[in-house]
Design goal:
InterPro entries: GyrI-like, GyrI-like_CCH_Lin2189-like, Reg_factor_effector_dom_sf. Pfam families: GyrI-like (PF06445). This is GyrI-like domain-containing protein. There is one protein chain. This protein is of the alpha+beta class. It is about 25% helix and about 30% strand. It has one domain (about 15-205): Multidrug-efflux Transporter 1 Regulator Bmrr, Chain A, CATH 3.20.80.10. The chain has helices spanning about 5-10, 10-15, 45-60, 115-125, 160-170; strands spanning about 20-35, 80-85, 100-110, 135-150, 175, 180-185, 200-205. Strands 1-3-2-6-7-4 form a 6-stranded antiparallel beta barrel.
């Protein structure tokens, strides 16, 4: 085994962007994912879905200590929670948070396969039968060409950062490929005051034809 893979050090371009919008190409990545709808501040299912993702992610990381070492495994830090956000009814807008739709996810290292994901699910079922692991899916996503920036502050202040991203797109002759957006949560909202929370905001984009 090599040294421990620390995403904060080795994947800085993906997870520690500048506080101004920048263009980046995001490669294909593997994730455990759980989808849902509703207000993340009040929905019990939202917190439950986060718990599912962390249970599966730590089950993978702890496999060697449980007697099974996957091929290609090396020690690593569990990746941060991410969410791809949209609206159940676009006409309703963002004012009503019950209108939110989301897919929460945690990235997995490259060695994780469908078989390894299944082993992780089995381990969670055995150790924590109350965790609804069957709600989760394992798959690959590739954002490709994207614009992202670091947002510091409360989630409700994100529109100001999105406005800067929109201005960047206009200046660079770019357009969004979808109205969905990705957030990567670098702070634990339970332990970090809102004004200090750090969140990566990302849009998938494409060049506007001349």
């Amino acid at each position: 085994m090599t040294g421990k893979h620390e995403w904060r050090k080795e994947d800085k371009a993906l997870y520690l962007p500048k506080t101004e919008p920048e263009l980046i190409t995001i490669p294909a990545q593997k994730f455990f994912q759980v989808s849902g709808t509703g207000n993340p501040n009040t929905s019990p299912a939202f917190a439950e879905n986060i718990g599912i993702l962390y249970a599966l992610s730590y089950a993978v990381r702890m496999m060697p200590k449980q007697g099974y070492t996957p091929e290609g495994f090396e020690p690593y830090t569990v990746y941060p929670l991410e969410g791809v956000w949209g609206l159940v009814d676009p006409a309703t807008g963002i004012e009503d948070k019950n209108n939110f739709s989301y897919t929460l996810m945690i990235r997995q290292p490259g060695f994780v396969t469908e078989e390894i994901a299944g082993r992780a699910a089995d381990a969670v079922r055995k150790k924590k039968p109350d965790v609804a692991v069957d709600k989760a899916v394992f798959g690959e996503m590739e954002d490709g060409l994207s614009v992202q920036m670091m947002h510091t502050g409360p989630y409700d202040d994100e529109p100001a950062s999105f406005a800067r991203m929109a201005q960047f797109l206009s200046e660079q002759n770019l357009e969004r490929r979808t109205l969905l957006h990705r957030e990567i949560y670098l702070s634990d909202a339970r332990r970090t005051s809102p004004e200090k929370q750090k969140t990566v905001l990302r849009w998938t984009v494409r060049q506007i034809p001349e």
